[in-house]
Amino acid sequence: MIEGRWKLPFPDGTLVTISAHALERFCERFAVHYGHSFEAKNTRKVLQAIIAKARPETLPAARRVARILSNGCQKASYWRSGVWRLVVTQDQGEMILKTIEIRGG
User: Fold this and answer.
1) d(Cα 88, Cα 75) in Å, to the nearest integer?
2) How many whole angstroms from its chain centre is CA 12?
3) Which residue in 6, 64, 65, 99 has a CA-CA distance of 20 to 30 Å to 71?
């Protein structure tokens, strides 16, 4: 596991805390999608490059409702960057990257 919680800027200037869950899922999904992993020391650099290219994504209404219900009624914003979807929630005013998934999945 990668230690620590980082804060990285999104393209709109919002500083987002990267959760441990998001880091773990990102590393797992990266390895599955690309067929290889990267050194743990490069995780921040790789993730920063993905976030730098992220753009807001609007999910279809039915999909948004289903996601809200499956996430314990917690709303989220979605960002896309290449094959990646970044799921951002808010907790007590702090923006948190909850998970990173392959788009379409």
Assistant:
1) 9
2) 15
3) 6
Q: Rounded to an integer, what distance in angstroms lies between the CA atom of residue 84 and that of residue 104?
A: 9
- Predicted TM-score (pTM) of this structure: 0.81
pLDDT, tens digit, 9 for 90 and up, residues 20-53:
889 899 989 999 888 888 777 888 889 999 999 9
> What single-letter amino acid sits at 21?
H
- Other residues' Cβ atoms within 10 Å of the Cβ of residue 16: 25
